[in-house]
Amino acid sequence: MKRPSDNERLFADALTDSGPADFRVSLLCETLRLARRRKRVRQVRQAGLVMGIAVALAMWFWPRGLVRPGKSEPATASYRLIETQPLSASAIVTTQPFTSSIASTPTANVITTAEARDGLRLLTDEELLSLAPAPAVLVRLGPNSAELILANQSKVEVR
Question: CA 151, CA 149: separation in Å to the nearest integer?
Answer without folding.
Answer: 6
